[in-house]
Amino acid sequence: MARATSESRWRLPTIDLSRRLSASRLPCEGHTLRVRERIHPHTDEDRIEQRDRAVLVGVDRSRADWPIEESLEELQRLAETAGADVVGTATQRMERPHPKTFIGAGKAEEIVELAKNTGANLVIFDDELSPRQQANVEDLLPDTRVLDRTALILDIFGQHAVSREGKLQVDLARMEYSLPRLRGMWGHLTKERLGGGVGARFGAGESQLETDRRLTRKRISELKRELASVAVERELQRKGRARGGVFRIALVGYTNAGKSTLLNALTGAGVLSADMLFATLDSTTRRMELPEGRQVTITDTVGFINKLPHGLVEAFKSTLDEVNEADLLLYVTDASAGQREAQMQAVREVLADIGAIDRPGVVVLNKWDLVDAQDRAALEKRYPQAACTAAATGEGIDRLIARIAEEAARSSVTLSVRIPFTRGDLVAVAHEHAQIVSESHDEDGTRLILRVPPEIAPQFRVFEIGADSNE
C-alpha cells in the first residue's frame, strides 16, 4: 500500500487508538488521535499486502557470519512469506552502518532510483534500523514504505499467531518495537508548532507525542500482566507433568527445519507443517509411548532465525521456558541447507540467551532424503552421534525413537520394590511412567524391578527391597 503523493503526503484520519495499539479495550474509551498514516509499520492496517513489490537492501560486511547473498536470500523468503514480491536488491559493502541512512547517502539515492524503476512500493532492510535511520530513509522515499528485518519478522509473527498467548506475545513485541519510534509520527506537528515564538516548545505535536507514549507504555504493562497470568497457567501444567515423572523432550531448531513434521512423525499429532518460515509460533505438546511402554512428552517450539529480534525472544520467554524445563533437546537441523552450520550457530546463540545451552541434547539431521551421498558421508563424520531422519518420508524415525529411549533410560533410577496390594495406585504410576523390567506377585504385594524418572523415585523408595534383605 503506497503512501499518498507529496501534496497530500500525510493523511490525518481519525483513527481509533484501540486498534492502533492492538488493545482489546483501553481505559480512555472513545479517545481518538489524528495521526500520520505511517504510524506503526507493522500493525494490522499496515501489514504487507499480497501483491506489494519490494526492494531488499543489505550491508556486506567482511566478517559477517553469513555471506550477503545467503542473508538476502533468506530475507527474500521472509518477504515472500509475508506476502510481497521481490523485484530488486541492493547491497553496500561497509563495516559499520551509516548513522543517518544505514547505507550512506549515495547508495540511498540509488535505492530511490531502483524503487522508482521497478515500481516498488516497499523497501526492506536486512538489519534493524534505528528510529533516526528509518525516518531519514522514509524522507528520501516519501511514496514508499520502509521496513527493517525486525518489522518484517513481527509482521509474519502477527499473521501466524493463533493462540491467545501467541497473540499477546506478538503484540508485546510490536509495542516495545514501536515505542522508541513514536517521535517520527508527530514530527510534522512539532515542526509546524515550533517555528519560533514564545511558548513554541509546548506545541500540539509534543503534547500528542507524550499522550501516545503514555498510552503505549500503559498497553505494554497490560500485555505483560496478561502474559504473566498465562505463564502461571503454563507453569502449573509443567509442574503437573514433572510430578508425574514424564520425560520431557523439546524440539528446537531453525525455522523451517522440519520440527512440526518431525513431531507428527513421532506422535501422529497432526499439527500444521508447511514449507514456510515461522509456520509454527504456538508450542504444541504431545505424548508418545516408547517401545518399552514409558510415556514421554514432546513439545514443538517456535523456530529461530538469524538476527532474531531480541524483543521477540523476551516476549516469547514463557513459551521458550518449555525448552529450559525439558529433559532432552532435539536439535532439529535441515541437513540439506547450504547454511546449516550458521543456522545451528544461530540456534545455539538463542539457547544461550535463554539459559538452555547446557541442556542434554541430540542433533537430528532432518531432510536426510534431500542430501546427496557425498554430503551424507561428510555429515556423518562431523556429527557421528547425530540421528539422521527424513520426517516427511519416515526414514530414520525408528532409530530416533530408539535413541530417545536410550536417553530416557540414562536419566532413570533402577529400583527393586515390593508394593503392598493396598497401593494399587502406585503400581499404576509405575506402568504409566516407568519401565518395568520384571513383575511378580506374592502374598505381601507386587514385586517390581523398574527404571523410574528421578522425579518420582522417592514415591517408590519407601517400598524398596534393601540389599541386606533376607529374601
Layout of helices and strands:
Elements: E1 14-16, H1 17-20, E2 32-34, E3 52-60, H2 68-82, E4 84-93, H3 105-118, E5 122-125, H4 131-140, E6 145-147, H5 149-160, H6 164-178, H7 183-193, H8 204-243, E7 247-253, H9 259-267, E8 284-289, E9 295-300, H10 310-315, H11 317-325, E10 328-334, H12 340-353, E11 361-366, H13 373-382, E12 387-388, H14 397-410, E13 413-419, H15 424-433, E14 435-442, E15 445-452, H16 457-461
Parallel strand pairs: 3-4, 3-5, 5-6, 7-9, 7-10, 10-11, 11-12
Antiparallel strand pairs: 1-2, 8-9, 13-15, 14-15
Mean pLDDT: 79
* Uncertain stretches of 5 or more adjacent residues: 1-46, 188-202, 467-471
Radius of gyration: 27 Å
How many domains make up the coordinates? 3
The oligomerization state is single chain
CATH superfamily of the largest domain: GTPase HflX, N-terminal domain
Description:
This protein has 471 residues and is of the alpha/beta class. It has three domains: 6-220, Rossmann fold; 245-409, P-loop containing nucleotide triphosphate hydrolases (Rossmann fold, 3-Layer(aba) Sandwich), CATH 3.40.50.300; 412-461, no CATH class. The protein contains 16 helices and 15 strands. It has helices at residues 17-20, 68-82, 105-118, 131-140, 149-160, 164-178, 183-193, 204-243, 259-267, 310-315, 317-325, 340-353, 373-382, 397-410, 424-433, 457-461; strands spanning 14-16, 32-34, 52-60, 84-93, 122-125, 145-147, 247-253, 284-289, 295-300, 328-334, 361-366, 387-388, 413-419, 435-442, 445-452. Strands 8-9-7-10-11-12 form a six-stranded mixed beta sheet, with helices on both faces. Strands 4-3-5-6 form a four-stranded parallel beta sheet, with helices on both faces. Helix 2 packs parallel to helix 5 (149-160) and helix 5 (149-160) packs antiparallel against helix 6. The model is unreliable at 1-46, 188-202 and 467-471 (pLDDT under 50).
